Amino acid sequence: MARNIPRHKPKHPDVYMTQGPTFEKVCALAVWALAQGLFPERARVHFEDLDGEPAANMPDIDVREHYPIGSSAFEQQVLKFQANEVEDFATLAGILNHNNATGYLKEGEYQRWSFVRLIRKSYDLRIAGCSVKTWRQKVIKKILPVAETVVLFHLVAPELDTPATRALFAAAYPAVVSMGTLSPFTLQGYAYAQWLLWPVGFQKFLSNEFRYWEKQFAEIKRVRCERVRALRAAKLPMYKCEFTHTWMLCIEPETDQDASAAFEAYPDVDIVVVRDLRPRVPRAAILPRETRPIMREMHAIHVALAKREPDAWYALARPSGMSFLLNGSTSRAPKVASALAASEAALMGTILVTLEDLWRRHDATKAALTT
């Protein structure tokens, strides 16, 4: 797509986005700008939780027009293109849609060096004296070249990305390849894509941008370790359903890493309940430890919450078959705030009663079968 900027187009276009946009939404921002001949990195991003209602003519990425379940903000932007262009982006749209449903680009072979994971945690690294809005804008501006590279890589991959080129790259840069999968959603895959697309400046890229991102990933790891230690030291009170022997923890996070850090800090916990009161619309999540056999318990909790608040909760299926329960201001969760989640006592009381009822029903069924 052309990058020429027509004279009537603004040099610094305004765009409206969700709070703390995910990597997929930054990809959507990139294709939105490129389709109009604008430089994505010059966009002035405004946020729904900080800037109030936007002007009627201000373009937005997944704020006023949410994508349907199974789609993505990226795909919704692509669908506005000409039919032949939509086909060009089909592979990448499919990957991002699948990630929205499963989160797989943050896990497994992607996890250690995943930009999809990194961006959410980068918003928590705000330096002293920098406003929340300015810091978010800096994070987005810095990661936009990565998103653009992901988009361009998928456009040219069929021609350039072959087993032969991967072998050449592995021979020349074995240390980079040893980091793991060469998916462009990872740091090492980003390096491979840069080498394919812009080989002339690759050594400069390795010396500057690649080293910068290595340090960012190391900083995220350091902060996570700090949060694990802090949560462990806090000796948070735990809830236990005596009947199902399910241990639970309820936290109000200071960072987006706190939920996963809580599982590490408290290895006996089966479910972490997150009540995030920081956004304009409070968010809540009920997260199971996926290695525990508590699928039945999570389903019962979802049924009970959906009965109490039909429009407030959404179950996000994970590759393990387990579901996370979400509420609040995210693209995959309803924006109807949960009245239950506003009170720790009310939410945890509902969960405990649900688990007790589940045990009683199971016990009654078992007794009936043995008589």
Account of the 3D structure:
The protein is of the alpha/beta class. The protein folds into two domains: 14-219, no CATH class; 236-369, Diaminopimelate Epimerase, Chain A, domain 1 (Roll), CATH 3.10.310. Helix content is 49%, strand content 11%. Strands 4-5-6-7-9-8 form a six-stranded mixed sheet, with helices on both faces. Helix 1 links the parallel strand 1 (14-17) and strand 2. Helix 10 crosses helix 11 (258-265). It is globular, with a radius of gyration of 23 Å.
Supply the key terms:
single chain, 371 residues, alpha/beta, 2 domains, 6-stranded mixed sheet, 3-stranded parallel sheet, 13 helices
Strand order of the largest sheet: 4-5-6-7-9-8
How many beta-strand segments? 9
End-to-end C-alpha gap: 72 Å
In the predicted model, the low-confidence regions spanning at least 5 consecutive residues are 1-8
Portion of residues within helices: 40-55%
Q: DSSP strand (E) fraction? A: 5-15%
What series of H and E elements makes up the topology? EHEEHHHHHHHHHEEHEEHEEH
- Number of helical elements: 13
Helix vs. strand class: alpha/beta
Gross morphology: globular
What is the domain total for the residues? 2
What is the mean predicted local confidence, pLDDT? Answer: 86
Task: Please compute the radius of gyration using only Cα atoms.
Answer: 23 Å
Largest sheet: 6 strands, mixed
